[in-house]
Amino acid sequence: MASIQQTVTGLDEAIAKFGALAEVKPEEVADQIGALVVMQTQARISSEKASPTGEAWKPNMRGTSILFQSGGLNSSIHHLVMGNKTQIGSGLVYARIHNDGGEIRPKKGKALKYPGRAKQDMRVQSVVRIPKRQYLGISPANAQEIEAEIGKHYLGKMQ
């Protein structure tokens, strides 16, 4: 009878390295990814001026930096970790209408009054349409950065 005998070496070391993955806490990874996505979103608002799909945002009426008049929206972007998941967003009352677009109608009265191109130039309208300027989301380049961050985190544990 013919037989082959093979000796495997280094198996204990490999098992120990993979065992180190058990030490990875999913909430820590979610927190790191959340912090990264917050930075990516802030870059989109402060300088990129385009949706995660690459669609350029419609210019605003005043010709100023889109979604960055005071920097309030940008600085309000945060993340919240829930177990192995992270949620990115803003608690500002106007954040959603800018991300999704839509119409603003008066709650009281017949019209809305707001400054036009110049602060002294007041506009009065019954409906204000806000164009969609999506800032929340993951672009293909963002996804690559996230994957690299996850890889770094897990590979670091295996070394």
Question: How do the helices and strands line up, and which of them pair or pack?
Answer:
Layout (H helix, E strand, L loop, with lengths): L10 H9 L6 H23 L23 H5 L1 E5 L2 E5 L5 H6 L1 E3 L7 E4 L6 E4 L2 E3 L9 H18 L2
Antiparallel strand pairs: 1-2, 3-6, 4-5
Helix pairs in contact: 2-5
In spatial order, strands of the major sheet run: 1-2
Gyration radius, to the nearest Å? 25 Å
Q: β content, as a range? A: 15-25%
- Give the SSE string: HHHEEHEEEEH
Summarize the main sheet. 2 strands, antiparallel
Shape, please?
elongated
Helix content: 25-40%
Given helix and strand content, the structural type is alpha+beta
**Average residue-wise pLDDT:** 85
Q: Which consecutive residue ranges, at least 5 long each, have pLDDT under 50?
A: none
Number of helices: 5
- Report how far apart the termini are: 43 Å
Kindly state the number of beta strands.
6
Write a brief caption for the model.
Helix content is 38%, strand content 15%. It has 5 helices and 6 strands. The strands form 3 sheets. A two-stranded antiparallel ribbon has the order 1-2. The protein has a two-stranded antiparallel sheet with strand order 3-6. Strands 4-5 form a two-stranded antiparallel sheet.
Can you give a write-up of this model?
With 159 residues, this protein is of the alpha+beta class. It has a domain at 15-99 and 134-157. Helix content is 38%, strand content 15%. The protein is built from five helices and six strands; from the N terminus they run H-H-H-E-E-H-E-E-E-E-H. The protein has helices spanning 11-19, 26-48, 72-76, 95-100, 140-157; strands at 78-82, 85-89, 102-104, 112-115, 122-125, 128-130. The strands form three sheets. Strands 1-2 form a two-stranded antiparallel sheet. Strand 4 and strand 5 form a beta hairpin. The longest helix is centred in the first third of the chain and has 23 residues, at 26-48. The two termini are 43 Å apart. 9% of the residues are buried. The model has no long low-confidence stretch (mean pLDDT 85).
